[in-house]
Amino acid sequence: MAGGFGVGKTTLVGAVSEIRPLRTEEILTEAGRPVDDIAGVESKTTTTVAMDFGRITLREDLVLYLFGTPGQDRFWFLWDELATGALGAVVLADTRRLEDCFAAIDYFERRKIAFTVAVNCFEGADRFPEDSVRDALDLDPGTPVVLCDARERESAKHVLISVVEHAMLASARG
């Protein structure tokens, strides 16, 4: 899972993981105020500083390991390690701060890693049709866009199904 600061990556991993997720969250401090833009997520008090990790078993022979990346650019050096061997990825987006997911989209496109954009439908945020989000993000027509609530297990499962199906199709195309 990748995306901007405060978009819900930790929440999504926690909602769907069958194990207690590993979280590397720290309290936001005054020192981080100049670099951590909390506009739109003013109630946020913690931030991921390394990664989130969870797991979900789809079948006996198919297990997804879930890694959530930190959202701030100062932690991007971790992304290469977390993406090594990835068959697919989720870019979590917030329509109030859609520009925050451009870096994640560029990252996966450059590395040819199949990804799904999941729009986390925050309370009070405007809702847009999937095609409008696709156009705003200038995505390839085959890139899935799904709406979700990162807090809800069924919604998070729908996101994972989308990325697994998309990764399998991309792999079959070679």
Summarize the structure.
This protein has helices at residues 9-16, 79-83, 102-110, 130-137, 153-173, and strands spanning 2-3, 22-27, 46-59, 62-68, 88-93, 114-120, 145-148. With 174 residues, it is α/β, with parallel strands linked by helices. Strand 5, helix 3 and strand 6 (114-120) form a beta-alpha-beta unit.
Question: What would you note in describing this structure?
Answer:
By secondary structure, the protein is α/β, with parallel strands linked by helices. Helix content is 29%, strand content 26%. The chain has helices at 9-16, 79-83, 102-110, 130-137, 153-173; strands at residues 2-3, 22-27, 46-59, 62-68, 88-93, 114-120, 145-148. A 4-stranded parallel beta sheet has the order 1-5-6-7, sandwiched between helices. It has a 3-stranded antiparallel beta sheet with strand order 2-3-4, covered by helices on one side. The radius of gyration is 15 Å and the shape is globular. It starts with a strand and ends with a helix.
Number of strands: 7
Count of discrete alpha- or pi-helical segments spanning 4 or more residues: 5
Radius of gyration: 15 Å
Q: How much of the sequence is in beta strands?
A: 25-35%
Helix content: 25-40%
- Helix and strand pattern: EHEEEHEHEHEH
Q: What structural class results from the helix and strand content?
A: alpha/beta
Low-confidence stretches: none
Shape verdict: globular
* Spatial gap, N to C terminus: 23 Å
Mean pLDDT: 85
Strand numbers in spatial order across the main sheet: 1-5-6-7
Largest β sheet strand count, sense and barrel closure: 4 strands, parallel
Keywords: GTP-binding, Hydrolase, Nucleotide-binding, Receptor
InterPro entries: Gliding_Motility_GTPase (IPR052705), Gpn (IPR004130), P-loop_NTPase (IPR027417)
Pfam families: ATP_bind_1
Protein name: Signal recognition particle receptor subunit beta
